[in-house]
Write a structure and sequence with these properties.
Blueprint lengths: L2 E8 L2 E8 L9 E5 L7 E2 L10 E6 L4 E6 L7 E2 L2 E2 L4 E3 L5 E4 L2 E9 L46 E5 L6 E3 L18 E5 L4
Parallel strand pairs: 3-4
Antiparallel strand pairs: 1-2, 1-11, 3-5, 5-6, 6-9, 7-8, 7-10, 10-11, 12-13, 12-14
Length: 196
Amino acid sequence: MNALTLQWHDAGQDKTQNIYEQQPSKNPGTIRIGRDPLRCDIVLSNPTVSGLHVEIFFHNQQQRFYIRNLRSQNPPLIDGQQLVQGERPLTQGTVISLGQTKLQITSVSINSIPATILTPPQVAHHPPTPPAYQQPQVQLGHHHHQPKPPVPPQGVYGLECPKCRKVSPAENLQVGCRWCGTSLAAAVSVLVAPSN
């Protein structure tokens, strides 16, 4: 299980929160941080923090956790550098400053599972293998039809939008969902059925 641990001090208390790759959240695929309890999974009380400030998500292709700024007028500082737009990878020891609140990543645990490849499966051409021994068919005056072997699925991979669940072509990874505009960085790759 890919996980990241955040620690911060808020309202006079030290707090710790684990963030997992696929944990349920208010915006599937991301964990949002800010002051608004209706839109955020981690709620901070400091008035210098925006209502909806940043989101953290796991990037399947890069096999890393990233942070994305959601408030261009109040950009977070990541290790002292402003993140005005886009996203930045997170590592153990990274300090995230949201207004006057500082959050630190105390651990990052990534399973070394290879990333999902977003290319269509290649069909290998092998010589046919001899069939396994089959019982001889007894002819009783009518013909027996051998069942056809199942055909493996052919198709291409697409990216399922974490918000509207519509599938976009893999080349839209950098562009975002063409229906709702959500970033596809946290999208799940899915096999799209072939169009005959």
